[in-house]
Amino acid sequence: MKKNLMGIFIVFVFIFLTLIGRLIYIKHFDGNQYERSVLAQQTSYNRILQFKRGSILDRNGTVLASSIKVFNLILDPEVLAISNDNSKETTVEILNEYFGINKDELLEYINNPRGRHYVPLIKHISFEDVEEFNGYLEEKRGTNLFRGVWFEEEYIRNYPFNNLASNVLGFYSSDVGRWGVEEYYNKELTGEIGREFGLINEGLYVQRETRNPKNGNNIITTIDYTIQHFVEQALTKFTNRVDTLNAMVIVMDPNSGEILAMASQPNYNPNHPMSLVDHFTEEGLKNLSSEERLNYLQRLWRLNPISDTYEPGSTFKPMTIAAALEEGILTGDEMFLCNGHIMVRGTRINCWRREGHGEQTLSQVLANSCNIGLVEIGEMMGREIFVQYQRGFGFGERTNIDLLGEASASNLLYSVNRMGPVELATNTFGQSFNVTPIQLITGFSAFLNGGELVEPHIVKQIVDENGYNIKSIDKKVVRKVISRDTADQVKEYLLDAVADGTGRRAYIEGYDIGGKTGTAEKLPRGNDKYIYSFIGFAPFESPEVVALVILDEPEIEGANSSLAISVFREIMEKVLPYMNIYPSESNIDTE
């Protein structure tokens, strides 16, 4: 018995000494490797923590652009390469089985880590898919041997209403805002990345340090989602029926300069800004060269209402009349005779109505859009006064709207020295010089707000992620252009232009609406290419909204400014009730 016990004791001692020896060997020869392997599981080394780009909202808090959290599946080959258990095989098997990632590709990363701790495998996985995968690990396979894989947080830009306000918003690509609000306010929308450091020091101690990201600020625009929707709905309906080179609308508060809606057709989906599938057939896309594709994309991205220039035509005529009234050259009691044309230094200038309008009051000259009456007013005023007020209304200079790409059109206006009698004559009725749509609606608004040139703006407020105010963009008066008396007098004439003149189709039952039509022949003359426009406002007594509609080369027989009026009317019939501007009982036709 004693011999047996002694034998068992010797065996246990031998086994114990063997284990001690093995532990000493591992500690002495392989200890660093094992400890580093364990520590590697606990550290992210140098992991970037992404910030959340600020959202863009409409004036009422509707989100027009936001950043949605997604996840990237990241492989850490170095962790698996130094593992001595079955984690490599298990991890490869799980990734292949669940995500369909090629085993040979994974093994190539793991067997040749080259010090890499960051290899993206799959990008932009949703939160729901990540949760589903974690459930799969927990229930089916466990997580004990699944190592060296983690989910990196990232944000992708999302535009919930797709094409809506795309030209105003712009898009986000390659970590920077492009076009529209995204580009102009890129600095405010952009946050600061954070980092998570994990360092193994000489004593094999993991030292962690985290610098949290700072999210970007939110931009609250002046855009009203509902008005923007009405505008784009009307534009889409029109362009589906009539082909145009471009169709655009601006809706603005004439008192504050706040842009309530701005749109142009064709447009694009900022969720897929490089896609042309909505604009070309599959065969057409194949035939596009790289240069043609880029040119067409830039045409879609371009914010035409601030970047395009055109001859304003008759929509400029109120400015000419206002200048003469303000200077006392006109009183409003004058009479004008139009026989269909007038000679200026040997050049025949025609009225659009070749047989003439006959005898007219000043109000009728504007209501009938009579070129001859405007030419006579220009001769009475002279080029110095005309140029002074032309520039006073903001033409030839940028409005400084808070969007990139605004054209000034300064080189498309005549100076006093370069303006001869014929140039003065044609300028008075809106020809021979160019403006931008945003310049026109800004200058026109002076008639509606008492004579002030107000700087237009697209952003109302900048707030941080917690809603605290960073900056408010308030009304800015550039200068006083005309007196309130002059503004009110011209406003009366604009009311007559809708009641009894060329804009009569803009009348909406129950509302006192003022406005002016415009027709401009594009250069070179004689090619039968026209831009038709209409600018109108409501209500008459205290205007709260002004809208400009421009249609560039509508391809329809008998095209004229009534096309622009039809778009204006369709928009305003919805916008006015929405803005709580209701018909006046005294103006409702009961017949």
From TrEMBL:
Entry annotated with the keyword Transmembrane helix: yes
Record-level GO cellular component terms: plasma membrane
Domain Penicillin-binding protein dimerisation: 52-196
InterPro entries from the UniProt entry: Beta-lactam/transpept (IPR050515), Beta-lactam/transpept-like (IPR012338), PBP_dimer (IPR005311), PBP_dimer_sf (IPR036138), PCN-bd_Tpept (IPR001460)
One GO BP: cell wall organization
Similarity comment: family membership: Belongs to the transpeptidase family.
Protein name per Swiss-Prot or TrEMBL: Stage V sporulation protein D (Sporulation-specific penicillin-binding protein)
Species name: Natranaerovirga pectinivora
Taxonomic lineage from the root: Bacteria, Bacillati, Bacillota, Clostridia, Lachnospirales
